[in-house]
Amino acid sequence: MRILVADKDREVLSLVSTRLEARGYEVVEVTDKEDVLRYLDTEPVDLILLSTEVDRYGGTYLIEHIRHRPHLTTVPVIMMTEKDHLAELMVGQDCGFDDFLIKPFDAFTLQLRVAINIRRARDRVDANALTHLPGNHAIGRYVQRKIEKGEKFSVLYLDINHFKAFNDVYGFQKGDDVIRHTARILVATARTTVKEGEYLIGHIGGDDFVAVMHPDYEETFARAFLDEFDRIISTYYHEDDQKRGYVRVTNRRGKRENIALMSCSVAACNNLYRTYISLAEIAQDAAQVKSFLKSQPGSHYLRDRRSEPIRHLEQAVSILAPEMEKAKAKKDTSEPLGQTLIAEGLITEDQLTLALKKQFETGKKLGQILVNMKALKSEDLGAALAKKWSVEYHNLNLKEPPRDVLRLFTLDFMKSRRVVPVEASADTVKVAMCDPQNAALVEDVAKMSGFKIEPCFGLESEIDEYLEKCSPELLQEEKAG
Asked: Which residue, of 56, 75, 107, 257, has the greatest Cβ tally within 10 A?
């Protein structure tokens, strides 16, 4: 790693060089502003430490000249300044520097800020420009660290089938929307399915993604992702194409052909029964699995089992029928909210599909999206969720709790945990909460109140609105008490 340090004070230069060289960095010292640009135009650097004393350059800021050079746009620049010159630094803050240090600074602060900015710049360069997910180099480093540490892991390669045909018919902007949406589905699925340990979701480029996680979560993640992908992806097509199940495109020979709607192939490899030495080796195995998957219609997940101990050759390569996949994925899991609402006759499949799409675009809760769409009344949503969880639904818009019951908790406690006591008896308090199945929360509320807690369901929006509405009065009562 090479760092350019520019300062008129040679003592500062010597001190900074000594401290950074002790950390293994190569340091280039410069005292003249013309020499700064002359060096940067001929030699590569990984970071620039620039003193405000050399930043003035022909009536403008030297940092501006640095940022106008395309090969330096991603190189981090840390400004070094006296405390009295912070105002001047503020004037130039829009010129493009990344961080600053106030002189005099200690060795630890210098080394830490340099390391942070170099890592941040490296991650920024590695990230995919469209999705901002880690790119090839970041994925490679992540997997290599796991290999070197001897950790068990799975690498899943995810490829959107027939994406080019969609791009050709609907245009690059719509294609980018699909790529971004796929990235959001991947991140959201990993967040909900990987219960312990770390994971990585990366974007190789185009319609190719990578997920790395512990092998225990590989199949659950893959199947959950494919369920959501298949549910959402058809909404990107016009109604006529959805009904036909294909789009019409002109191939390279100038002939019209029918191309199926987009689906996804998920090819997985792990090191449970095989030792890998690099990501390239893993990618080679995954490519063979993916090639087989892409010959099959629809979305599929398949793990490379060729290195596993098997009794029959057929076990090495097998694909479950979509119906079997979905049944296995949903086995022993509670029914999703959307399916519950459809079963109750409260919404339609089309409304659910549109709401799910909006959920991944906005990150908001599915139920609230359906209410905002006016596809569902909030009281119907509350009743359906309460029925699903076998608890009572308390609508705070229709029935406010007695004041003496509210005084059991402080306002801060209720707001931080989104709970409202609604009814009390000799030894039991009925409490409306967003997640009545959260045993830890119920225990927390019981300890706070000293009562036995009977959880009931309250919509998050209704609880928030109620607490906001009565906050002034409750605060006055707390102060008076």
From this structure: 75
